[in-house]
Amino acid sequence: LRHPSFELAVREVVDTLKRLSFAPSEPARREDGVAVDVRHCPFSVDPQDPDGPVVCAFHEGLVKGLAEATSGEEVGVRLMPFISPGLCRVELSTGEAVAVRPRRRKGRST
Length: 110
Hints:
Oligomer: single chain
Radius of gyration: 14 Å
């Protein structure tokens, strides 16, 4: 990617997730950004936990706030919980990708 501030934001997100014991993978480049697999939740959330969506939404907001504060620009963040047993994924994309990616809203039809 050619966005030094975005690259810095990704590095800060990964470093912070490591410090918080999320056991993140190294970032994997995607078409419009990067993906970081997370192998541990320090809150021990599992797919059957009724409070899981609240915890995951908090983590998504934490990553977004950290990425945008570090980069100084809009960063798209999508958390995908439990893509396989014991594995979640965080996708980060640049401001340009955010502008063209349609937003999905739960419970609303388009």
